[in-house]
Amino acid sequence: SVHNACSSGAFAIEVAAQRIRSGQAEVMIVVGGESFDTGVRLEWFRRLDLYAHDSEGMRPFDSTSSGFYVGEGAGAMVLESAAHAAKRGATLYATYAGGAFAHQGWKQTIPDVRAGRLRGVIESALATAGVRADEIDLVVPHGASTALSDGYEAACLKEALGSRAERAVATVFKPHVGHMLAACGVIETIASLLAMKHQSVPGTLNSNRRTAFFPVPLVTSQTDREVYTVLKLSTGFTGHDAALLFRRA
């Protein structure tokens, strides 16, 4: 069981990959789920001014956003060695190229914007996976739709990539399904790999290009395009940062 707040799914994928790479297993199933069964957390989010207080939906990386809505759901994905996949004739969606992870250990809901730890995580993930910034086709950020979290994520990505990710676009899945907290890392990774498989990127709902501030162009309507390399980001409560890279199989 992996508990890293909203980044739990991303950390769990790395744990599974390490088990396979070390020879402890040939195949692992990564499962993430969220059932929002208490009003206490909802009231906590409201008091912290994180929960949306309008009816226009989540608007990630939009200066007019008022916060997020929670969602419920679950997802599961299979990670396995190339030999095991070939032996059973598996349908391949992508290769997990690698990732990087860190914990800020600063505040429960506020990222340490001065340290910019996520910037280093993104840079380390690129180095670990052997991926250049100009190879990235799709960025799927965490996109919690809160001003501080979105601003921190956008600034760190801009510093890490600079102007090198010229062919990349970005999309955020949370406006479609809500913020599924512990489950969002797994479910949004699955959605990213499906976008890669079908060579089609769903649009980011609700966000307006005129008020968006993300350093990579946000796709606001479904767009068919080549997707061979995906960068998936997660920024969880209590400062769990993660960056994962996938290549098309």
Protein topology:
Elements: H1 8-21, E1 27-34, H2 39-47, E2 73-80, H3 82-88, E3 94-103, H4 117-129, E4 138-140, H5 147-161, E5 169-170, H6 174-177, H7 184-198, E6 200-201, E7 223-224, E8 229-236, E9 240-248
Parallel strand pairs: 4-5, 4-8
Antiparallel strand pairs: 1-2, 3-9, 6-7, 8-9
Helix pairs in contact: 1-7, 4-5
What does this protein structure show overall?
By secondary structure, this protein is of the alpha/beta class. 31% of the residues lie in helices and 21% in strands.
How would you summarize this macromolecular structure in one to three sentences?
This protein has 249 residues and is an alpha/beta fold.
- Provide the β-strand percentage band: 15-25%
Binned, the helix content reads 25-40%
**Helix count, per DSSP?**
7
Q: Separation of termini?
A: 28 Å
Largest beta-sheet characterization: 5 strands, mixed
Mean pLDDT: 92
Shape: globular
Biggest sheet strand line-up: 3-9-8-4-5
Low-confidence stretches are none
